[in-house]
Write a structure and sequence with these properties.
This protein is α/β, with parallel strands linked by helices. The chain has ten helices and seven strands. The structure holds uridine-5'-diphosphate (UDP) and magnesium ion. Magnesium ion binds next to loops.
Length: about 325
């Protein structure tokens, strides 16, 4: 049985690029159908993320002309991650596999063939990983590198150089649907879902038209969301800082007492230094403890699934 594929494509104010890339997606779909990789009822699902230009009109006319094109529209702009999730959740009951890809033509559509082959080989998740960042500006390259380093240091597990170009099977999507959190960082959530996964490498090109919808402000907020929604390590750092300052203040106290003995202090200095060091350390340690509990509450409140079963043995009858 050939799997039914839904391509999920978020679009926000993309009137300049959509007329150029929509035919490319369709061509890729047809070519995979011709190779018998995917079924005839595979579709291309555009998700309009509350665009203020004519993007939705373009999607509607594409869908009117060609039955392979479908569209859904969000009531307002909610951001890329939410748009992708909306599309994936819409598709999960209609297909066997989804591939999410940006609509600007930067990601090489040809890599989809390898993704589907990996799925047919038993992988439920296939990450599209860019093999180089030559087309990015130096700034974007170094900042992206720093971003992955920081995420990993903060205990968030993400695939290096993978954005949101990936194949997810319907089975893995059913599990992803159990993650009820509102602050989304799909790159970190998909690895948490588990299942057999692999990576496929591709070259990322320049945007075909239009401008990036990810200015520095949005990139920083995504990075911050990534860290805070995947890890409570920043809170734990407060405890570590408290311990460190307790050690330092102990040294400070010894120094203050020694200075007093040696007689080169004014009256009251020793006790002042003592109080400042002691209270500083106590406060930080207490904040750290409170932080630990807040971290626990935060993780609990997300209501993430406690287990996900990937397979069951067939019953023998
Ligand atoms: N996008 C979206 N909502 C937003 C911002 C972006 O759906 O609020 C979509 C956009 O249309 C594109 C994808 O997310 O398909 C990636 O955006 P972009 O190419 O501008 O980001 P970059 O590649 O520059 O990081
Ligand atoms: Mg782009």
């Amino acid at each position: 049985m050939k799997p039914t594929l839904y391509m999920v494509i978020p679009c926000y104010n993309e009137e300049a690029v959509l007329p150029l890339t929509a035919p490319l997606f369709l061509e890729q779909l047809r070519s995979m159908q011709a190779q018998e990789l995917i079924s005839a009822d595979s579709r291309i699902l555009f998700v309009n993320d509350g665009s203020t230009d004519t993007t939705w009109d373009i999607i509607r006319s594409l869908a009117a002309e060609e039955s392979a094109f479908l569209g859904i529209s969000q009531s307002r702009n909610r951001g890329h991650q939410n748009a992708v999730l909306a599309g994936l959740m819409e598709a999960k009951d209609l297909c066997d596999i989804t591939i999410s890809i940006d609509c600007d033509g930067q990601d090489d559509v040809a890599a989809m063939e390898e993704m589907v082959r990996q799925y047919l080989d038993g992988c439920e998740v296939v990450y599209g990983v860019r093999s180089s960042r030559d087309t990015d500006s130096r700034f974007k390259r170094t900042s992206a590198h720093g971003f992955y380093k920081l995420l990993n240091a903060m205990g968030a597990e993400v695939v290096y150089n993978h954005a949101d170009y990936r194949l997810i099977s319907a089975k893995a999507l059913q599990a992803l649907a159990q993650f009820k959190e509102v602050n989304l960082f799909l790159r970190g959530m998909v690895p948490l879902v588990g299942f057999k996964s692999t990576s496929v490498y591709y070259e990322r090109r320049e945007r075909l038209a239009g401008e990036s919808k990810y200015p520095l402000r949005k990139m920083l907020s995504l990075a911050f969301d990534g860290i805070t929604s995947l890890s409570v390590k920043p809170l734990r750092l407060i405890s570590a800082l408290g311990m460190l300052s307790a050690v330092i203040s102990l040294i400070g106290v010894v120094w203050a007492v020694l200075s007093k003995w040696l007689g080169n202090t004014v009256a009251g200095w020793t006790s002042t230094v003592f109080v400042v060091c002691f209270l500083g350390a106590v406060q930080l340690i207490c904040l750290g403890i409170v932080g630990e509990y807040i971290g626990k509450i935060y993780m609990e409140i997300k209501g993430r699934p406690r287990y996900i079963i990937s397979e069951r043995t067939e019953s023998k009858e």
